[in-house]
Amino acid sequence: MPLFHLSRHPRLLDLLLDHFYRCLESIFGRCLSPGEGDGLDWGSMEEGDWDGWSDDLEDNVAHDTRYVHTHFDGDGEAIAKGLSKSWPLVDIQETSSPLEPSLSSCVSKKKAESCSGVVCREDGPFTIETDSQTNLKRRCCCISNILRSLSYIPGNDVELCLHARFLHLIAQVLSLHFEPWLPLPHLTDSADNVTGGDGPGTEWWWLCLESLREDALVTLSNIAGQLNLSLLPQAVGHPLVEALVNWLVCESPSSVDPFKGKLLLSPRSLALEALSKVALLEVNLDLVLSTPSSAVLTGLIDYLTSLLIDQRWRVQREFALVLLSCLLQGNIEEYALEHLKQSPRIVSHFVGFLETAEAGAAAAVLQARSFSFPLEAYGTSVYMLYRAALGVLALAKLHPPLFACYQRRLLSLSTSRLLDSYVSGVLADALMELSSP
Fold it and tell me: Per-residue pLDDT for 244 more than 50?
């Protein structure tokens, strides 16, 4: 068992989350305060309302975090103006108030704009940042990176997926300054808005927020394969899915552009990976399909469909294939079904994916002059072909008229000797579904 497996350190994750929450609260103010709008009281174990929860999840309720020091003076002593410095009675709310701008007042009209729901950073001439703010940002990013690193350790994904408080904080980080379909508040210009300072227009935390978003999305991508949303209350699972869907359908530069650094992945691509892994578990499908609004869900289907023909990004294409195949097998809402009925190209993309793989195998057979060929000749994995076939079968059940022009091509694929027998079998089931009255 790895040294930093969370089961070997029962209190490690809770302590990290205590420090993480206090740093987030000090930077972003009460906008992260649990219990505001989510129906849950995360403030103490005594006051939490966890009806219907299992005993192991009840232990994940947030503890009192007043003992956590988030600000230090030059000598390394914790700042606690007017209060005792003895642990654990330290309360830093008085000293942290200058560092707690609210969501409605921390974004300058000159420095930011609404990009399909995401508040985007636009650097001004310069920004004044105090030493205390710099240290606070570093501490917050350090804790976030520790949580991200823990998600890479085998076995920790199971522990993290069962920790409701951890998932709740991750969802809140992804939702920070992401307000879909809402315009930015119109703020009056001031000297602080232009030159920086400690006023309401200060944006000293933008780079920190970008780093936190990256860590949150990478962590979710690492653990999403073990995430069972049915074990979590709706107040935790719903915001988590909503945040992933919003980042996936958003077309702003903040979503599409890669993170700065060595990762070279965008928030949209990481959200796609995480959501496709979440959707693989059948019990998660209902929540994934019911969370987005009608416009967002149809936009999601259109975006995933467009990725199926984009051969420049193979990994994203395959994640889109998996996610779309899973969504089609779920309980599609009536409005989404009506949208699919008007999108015959989705069938063309699935069939085209299978035909491209068959053509690659045929070329390998001609070169080798034998029906024995490496699976790499498909240009993808057999599992992806199987997922594409499942998507075809799901569409055949949902709306057979979509296949008016594709039955001959499906018949050719289902009888091909170059495709895997499981794939051909699923395609044969689709043809049977189409032929039934």
Answer: yes
Q: How far apart are CA 287 and CA 9, in angstroms?
A: 32
Specify the amino acid at residue 138: R
Two tokens at 36? 């505001």
- 145: burial class by Cβ within 10 Å (0-12, 13-18, 19+)? middle
Find, among 243, 415, 391, the residue nearest to 330 by Cα: 391
Read off the tokens for 377: 């000749």
Q: Tell me the pTM.
A: 0.76
Better-scored residue on pLDDT, 403 or 92: 403
22-36, 76-90, 170-184 — which is least confidently predicted? 76-90
DSSP secondary structure letters along 211-231: HHHHHHHHHHHHHGGG--GGG
- Per DSSP, helices labelled H in 48-153 are 55-58, 93-96, 131-150
Q: Is 35 exposed, middle or buried (0-12, 13-18, 19+ CB in 10 A)?
A: middle
Give the C-alpha separation, 273 to 395, whole Å: 23
Please check the confidence at residue 424 and state whether its pLDDT lies above 80: yes
Q: Interhelix angle for 206-223 vs 164-175, to 10°?
A: 130
The CA radius of gyration of the chain, in Å to the nearest whole number, is: 25
> By the 8 A CB rule, do 129 and 204 touch?
yes
The dihedrals phi and psi of 111, each to the nearest 5 degrees, come to: -100, -10
Q: How many CB atoms lie within 10 A of CB 70?
A: 24
33-37, 348-352, 403-407, range with the lowest pLDDT: 33-37
Cα 165 from chain centroid? 16
Token couple for 415:
């009888």
Contact 258, 266 (CB under 8 A): yes
Beta pairing partners, 364: none
Residue type, 436: S
**Cis status of the peptide bond prior to 154, with omega within 30 of 0:** no
Q: Are 263 and 222 in contact (CB under 8 A)?
A: no
The rounded distance, in Å, linking the Cα atoms of 404 and 347 is 10
φ, ψ of residue 73 in degrees (nearest 5): -85, -170
Which residues fall within 8 angstroms of residue 354, CB to CB, at 6 or more apart?
385, 388, 389, 392, 413, 419, 423, 427
Shortest CA distance to 186 belongs to which of 108, 122, 243?
Answer: 108
Q: What secondary structure letter does DSSP report for 155?
A: T
pLDDT one-digit tens code per residue, 142-154: 999 999 999 999 9
